[in-house]
Structure formats: C-alpha cells, structure tokens
Amino acid sequence: MSHVDATVAPAAPANPRSRVILASLIGTSIEFYDFYVYATAAVLVFPILFFPSDNAVAAQLASFAAFGVAFIARPIGSVLFGHFGDRIGRKGTLVASLLTMGIATFIIGVLPTALTPGWQVLAPALLVLMRFCQGIGLGGEWSGAALLATENAPKGKRAIYGTFPQLGAPIGFIIANGVFLLLSLNLSQDDFLNWGWRVPFIASAVLVIIGLYVRLKLVETPAFTKVVERGEVAKLPLARVLKTSWRPLILGTFIMLATYVLFYLMTAFTLSYGTTASSLEAAKEAAIAKGAPLTDAAAAAFVPGLGYSRNDFLVMLIIGCVFFGIFTLVSGPLAERFGRRKTLLFTTVGIIVFGALFVPLFGAGTVGVMTLLIVGFALMGLTFGPMGSVLPELFPTNVRYTGSAISYNVASILGAALAPTIALALLAAGDGSPVLVGLYLSAAAVITLIALFISKETRDIDYEV
C-alpha cells in the first residue's frame, strides 16, 4: 500500500447518498452482529463448552475475560487501520477491517470445544485468538464507517448522517439475539450446546459478502480526496496525532466512557444477571446428564440473579434494543439543533440518575426490569448516536481516522473490557444487590460529564481542514 494508491482523480464521482447510508449502516451492522454473537455466547455457551469448571462463577469469569480480550485488541486495530485509513483512504481500509472481523467470526463457529478429547487447552486458546482478531477488525471498522458517513454528509447534516453507522449497533444486536432466540425456541438444550450455537457464527459469512459488495462500489470521500490533492497526507498518522492532537485524544476517550459502561451493563451484565438462576438449573441438568453432577460448593458459588428463562430475557433485551435504535435516530436532529455538547451533557446527567435507579427497577418485577431496559437503551441511543459526528470532528482530516479510532477504542478498554467482570464482582460484594453496579455506572458518567464541560462545541467546525 502506498501514497500513490490513494490518489483519486479530481473528476471522481461523488458517492450517492443512498449508497453512503447503506454502506456505513450495513458494515457496522455486520461488525456489531459479529461482536454481539460472541457476547451472547460468552454468557450462554462458552462457560460450559470452552471454560468448563466445577465452579460456575469461575467459568463465567473466564468467559468474560476472553470477551474482554477484544477490547485490548481494539486500540491496536485502531492504530493499524487508522494508519492506512489516513494514508491510502477510507474505502480500502473499511473493506480490510470487515474481512478481518468476518473471517475470525466464521472460524469461531467451526472450532472444536474444550470438551473434545485433546482440545482441552488448544480450543480455549484458539477462541481467545479469534476474539483478539475480532477486536482488531472492530478497532478499524467504526471510525471508517463514521468518516464514510460524515465526510459525505451535506452541510448542516453531519450529526444526522453520523447516526447511520451508529444505528448498526442496535440492528446488529437485534439480529444476533434474534438468531439465538430462534435457535433456542427450536432446539433442545443438548442440540443447542452440541451444534446450534455455531449457526450464528457461520451464518455471518453471508452478511460479510453482502457488506463487501456494497463497500467495493464506493469511491473515496471528498474530504480525504482534498487532502491527497493538497499533498497533506500524514506519513505517520499515529505520530502526528499524538504530537498535534493529544488533547482531543484524551477528551474523546472520556467523552465516550459512560457510553461504553452503559452499553455493556445493559447487554452482557443484564443477560447474565437476569438469567443466572435458570442457568444454574440448566447447568445442573446438563452436568447430571453427563454423569458429573455439580457439587453443593459449586452450586453455592452462583451469585443470586433474577431467574428469567434465557428465551424470555432475550425477548426483553430485543424490545429494549428497539428503543436504542429509535433514540439513536432521534439524537441526530437534536445534536444538529442544540449542538453535540449540550445534547450529550443532558444525556449524561440522565445516565447519572439512571445508575441510582438500578435497585428499585431491578426489584420491581418484570415491569421494573422492562422499564430499566427501555430507559437504559433509550439513554444509550441518545449518547451513542452523536458520537458518530463528535469524535471525528475533534480531529483534522489527515489524522481523523487514526484520532477518532484511538479515542473510541481506548474508551472501550476503560469502559467496556472490564465492565461485565467489575459488575459481577460488585454484585457479589453487594450480596446479590445491583446497587454498587448502578453506582459504578453513575461514577463513569460523572467522569464523562467533566470531559464534556472541558470540551468545546464542534458543530460549526470546517470539516475539510
């Protein structure tokens, strides 16, 4: 890959609006689908098949640790793909990131499990390796999709266009969990654990092919084309962004912090907490069927949960995620009218208050849990939607891919990599009460609030500088 590869003829046609929206939306939908398939399996399948243990809590923690590996990989992916995104262009880099994520997800679907003779060590190791590759791919995907949308946006509509790649998150989540739900409804527990869980991973190959077809039809964004024409392409984007834009890197990271904590508490943690009791019973039955019943000590190690069936709680999550999508779209016009900073300030205050409501909502039966999921996902849409424009707007065009990708993905380590594990530990420390988990969310939102107060409004900046 060279500088010459990036050169775009001055007469190159612009990307049609419909193609921009579809390419930015479908790519992130596929990427987040792949990511959520793993997140769901990390709760429902992998503790049993890849990290078997007499102590169910230890198995779940090992699965969450493997889940967190991708967040460590994401900043590496942001530097790698950010370098090429700022050197050779957005289009080719987006194709490479999609392939990286898609191939890793497909391989997970065909891996032997730790229950296969001779694979007790190698199977978990390969799972972690593929999870790392997933993180590499996603580390480069989001920023490129956001730039594809916003660098092609008409004047005064960057925040609106920036919500389309963000909409890929709820769409991917709904598809991933919908597939798991259909499998659960149509397969026995044994069939699901034997082969059914593989279907969502293998099926992702079809989605990747569709995404590649759409993205290969794109031309380079106008903003990057002008950078090439002016001869301002950064030779070392990472060094340049660290030298000239270190302050936006820090602010962008902490502006994104509460968003990540909220999202992974609303997905991985709530699924684990909501289904713990029924998962315990299923684990006992599976162990007995294999002639190795759980010991009393192992059974006692389970942290108390809400006891919903897996299928019922997946339905509740999908309903909540619909509000995620709705409020992601709502956030765009709000961020255009009132500004990105003001919209996020009010939303972050709402997240702080929401964290204090974990105990009363979780303790109010199904109505309370549904209220928690709907409100939490609605806040998620309002905070996640503007990020598609906010983070890229913090950086000049020639380091925009690298800068926004690093901020986004370093925030993923601080806000998401450890969130499910911290939440589980806080739940145990609170004797099964989620009060400390809610306070953890509120504390993260306070940090984001401070970063927003320090930052400046970015709505009216010149995006081609």
From TrEMBL:
Superkingdom per UniProt: Bacteria
Q: Where in the cell is it found?
A: Cell membrane
One CC-aspect GO term: plasma membrane
Give the signal peptide range: none
On whether Coiled coil is a keyword of this UniProt record, the answer is no
Q: What PROSITE patterns does UniProt report for this protein, alphabetically?
A: MFS (PS50850), SUGAR_TRANSPORT_1 (PS00216)
- Major facilitator superfamily (MFS) profile domain location: 20-459
What membrane topology is annotated for this entry? Multi-pass membrane protein
Protein known as: Putative proline/betaine transporter
**InterPro entries for the chain:** MFS_dom (IPR020846), MFS_sugar_transport-like (IPR005828), MFS_trans_sf (IPR036259), Sugar_transporter_CS (IPR005829)
Transmembrane portions of the chain: 35-51, 57-81, 93-115, 121-148, 160-183, 195-216, 249-271, 313-332, 344-363, 369-394, 406-429, 435-454
Q: Which family does it belong to?
A: Belongs to the major facilitator superfamily. Metabolite:H+ Symporter (MHS) family (TC 2.A.1.6) family.
Provide any one GO MF term from the record.
Answer: symporter activity
- Which species is the source of this protein? Conyzicola nivalis
Provide the alphabetized UniProt keywords: Cell membrane, Membrane, Symport, Transmembrane, Transmembrane helix, Transport
What CDD domains does its record include?
A: MFS_ShiA_like
User: Does the UniProt entry include the keyword Transcription regulation?
Assistant: no
Q: Which Pfam families match?
A: Sugar_tr
Q: What does this protein do?
A: May be a proton symporter involved in the uptake of osmolytes such as proline and glycine betaine.
